[in-house]
Amino acid sequence: MSKKTIRYCLTLVFLSALGSTLMAGGRLQQIDITSPSGPSPIPGTILAKVIGIQWDTRAIPVRYRVNNSLDPIPNPLGAASLSVADATGAFTRAMTSWNDIPTSFMRMEIAGTVNKTTLVGFDFVNELSFRTSTGFNAIASSPSVSLMQDTTLVDGDDLDGDGDSDVSGAITQVTDVDNDGDLEFPAGFYKAGTILDNDVQFNTKTSNGLRFTTTDAALDTVGRSVDLECVAVHELGHSHGLSHTLNNQKSAHDGNGATMFPFIDTSDPAAELAGRSLDSDDIGWVSSIYPEGSAATGVAAIQTGDIPFAAVYGFITGDVRHGLANLPIAGASVWATNRDTGEVVAAGFSGTTQLIFNPATGGLSVVNNPALHILDGRYQIPLPKGNYEVGVEPIDGNPAAAGSISFSAQIGSIFGLLNFNEEMFKKSKEGAFERRAGDASSINIEPGKTRSGIDITTNVTLNVNNFGSRNFVGFTGVGPGTLYAVRFPKAQIEGIRPGQDILVQSALFDTVLADASVPALFARAVLTTGKVDPATSAITTIDLLTPLDDVQGFLAADDDFGVLHFHDSKQLGQRIRKDMARGRIEDLFLVLQVPETTPFAGVSNLPPFIGLDGGVATNDVPIFGLSYVSLDGGATWTRRTDFNFRFSLVLAEPPPK
To answer: Do 318 and 456 meet the contact criterion of CB atoms below 8 Å apart?
Structure first.
């Protein structure tokens, strides 16, 4: 084995361990050091492109072995009862969900068992295992080893350093050519990002593991019990090379999100059951990475039952730019909603990025130069034929953090570019200053075609936030129709751009659900006016009959800020300015009403919650006393002096004339 191969193997293993759970834009990410894109500002380092990972067609179908060294499989909650045979059945069903996609040529299969008492690792055995390390804290994970440079593999190469050849010149497809239990790759050229080894590990430790179940009857509300097929479908998505997504709510009628959303509600049987099935987001992305009909021969060629990817899907592409910083954004989540159904169909992340790589240590770093690391804010979304609206939101920690998504998202977060508000794309009015951030253009997608130029510039806004970080969510004991209100004092509004016009653009409501399968539907969201007693700050009136803006049946968000875009922010701002000056408006109020009927939706039968700041010994901001609750439809209000409700009023400067 050559010295070049030894050095290559060492850096390969290190980088794969570092990058196995980092993702972006529908794709898990790796770095590519094949052709450094320019000089690095740090001596001894190079600039490495950030790329997606995937399997080479010579490795398909990807063959897995089930570790049968623990049989029955441990149950941290009681006696072990799940057999390896039953677990294998769940794995097979999970693979079938992915294999049956007619527009994707990706295939996976169970090739047998392996009996190992050690942990998964880089050994050219794609393993499904119930053994995890002491420090492993997740439900499951799917680490991959992938190439970080274009490489020609030579017959006899020992890539994992076990003394056994991992490359054969006698084969054209990945196979166990020497019948020793591990796989060999055909000799030849492979692109950076090619996956060489993938394992999926499931946590069954007594300390923090879960009881895995395989039948409908075993689905329950126990937090440490979860459906194995649901988890396996998600993890096998990573095995394909798919990233996480922020899609955790399909529509006002379906609270379930994409399979590749990073969290599973293990206390909601309906959510676990839904997780066994693939979402349109998952199907579109895996089909775009492994497009059926993209070759004349081999696994990518059309066979019985296949449908050409290009006969079903087109693409939306564009760039996302930060309106205030005037920089391209890495880590914006751009999603597309079907205009006819109101369903979120797919999403992608923005940004073409690069990192600084130290060949001597394998370390990755950034310097204080966003232009060096973020080459553009490009995104791409695969979509079937239809009419769509496109929106953008930041990866800002809710419902997931940049560290759960990608290198690119982390780069955008480091440079402070993920601090904008959610908005929609409007072609004729798109810019840093918009009158109606909620207006959306209709974008038609035809199969085999790309709609380019869907470029988004995030709005420059001022969020009036009378709250700090979220400490709790509440409240569990409220009845149907309960109203939550936050006051925005007249003096506070008048102090913003005094004497100048403002846009009253939108309202943000921090909301959370007890059950992930339920949509975050509230009875009503309102911007209105009211008055308080100056001596006690008690509400004397809130006008719920003639509000400034009102949405009945308001779809908020699960573990995020739900957005109420006002209908005409310019007219609304002018009215508020004039009526405050004339004494017709005292204070502004944002009001959110929980559903008016019971039982509340979901297995928990709990209302949707609001985010609360407070309730801790030392709070990050004062309790402002601007939050109120009404249990009787707004007739009387109770002022909360223990929490700030996390409702935000979004103002903006009018567009230049």
So the answer is: yes
How many Cβ atoms from other residues are within 10 Å of residue 504's Cβ? 26
**Measured between alpha carbons, how far is residue 182 from residues 63, 66, 164, 169 in Å?**
10, 13, 9, 16
Q: Above 60 in pLDDT, residue 16?
A: no
DSSP per position, 570-620 = HHHHHHHHHHHHTTS--EEEEEEE--SSSSPSSTT--PPEEEEEE-SSS-S
Instruction: Give exposure, 512-543, as e/b (b: 16+ Cβ within 10 Å).
Output: bbbbbbbbbbbbbbbbbbbbbeeeeeebeebb
Q: What is the pTM of this model?
A: 0.94
First-to-last C-alpha distance (Å) of the chain: 69
- Whether residue 107 is predicted with pLDDT greater than 90 in this model: the reply is yes
- What is the spatial distance between Cα 423 and Cα 433, in angstroms, rounded to a whole number? 12
Residue 626 burial class via C-beta count within 10 angstroms: exposed 0-12, middle 13-18, buried 19 and up: buried
pLDDT > 70? residue 3: no
C-alpha to C-alpha distance for 120 and 128, rounded to whole angstroms: 8
Crossing angle of helices 84-99/228-240, nearest 10°? 50
Query: Stretch 380-398: mean pLDDT, rounded?
Result: 97
Q: For residues 100 and 531, what is the distance between their CA atoms, to the nearest angstrom?
A: 60
Query: pLDDT digits over 256-301, tens only?
Result: 999 999 999 999 999 999 999 999 999 999 999 999 999 999 999 9
Q: Is 17's pLDDT higher than 80?
A: no
**DSSP, res 82:** B
Cα–Cα distance for residue pair 528/541, rounded to 1 Å: 11
Where residue 429 falls among pLDDT bands split at 50, 70, 90? confident
The two tokens of residue 40 are: 């690095």
The length of the chain is 657
- For residues 646 and 470, the answer to whether their CB atoms sit within 8 Å is yes
Q: Where are the alpha helices (DSSP H) in 127-279?
A: 228-240, 269-274
Sign of CA dihedral 396, 401, 407, 410: positive
Can you give the pLDDT at residue 20? 28
Q: Does the N-terminal peptide bond of residue 547 adopt cis geometry, omega within 30 degrees of 0?
A: no
pLDDT of residue 11: 29
Q: Do residues 53 and 194 lie in contact, with contact meaning Cβ atoms separated by under 8 Å?
A: yes
Q: How far apart are CA 189 and CA 58, in angstroms?
A: 11
Distance separating alpha carbons of residues 642 and 627, to the nearest angstrom: 9
Beta bridge partners of 346: 336
- At what angle are helices 280-289 and 228-240 packed, to 10 degrees? 30
Distances (CA, A) of 157 to 19, 164, 182, 186, 402: 23, 8, 14, 11, 37
In whole angstroms, what is the distance from residue 116 CA to residue 70 CA?
Answer: 9
Give the 3-state secondary structure of 427-493.
HHHCCCCCCCCCCCCCEEECCCCEECCCCEECCCEEEEECCCCCCEEECCCCCCCCEEEEEECHHHH
CA angle 430, 435, 437 (to 5 degrees): 60
Tell which residue, 122, 128, 153, has the closest CA to residue 142.
128
Amino acid at 228: L
CB 391 within 8 A of CB 337: yes
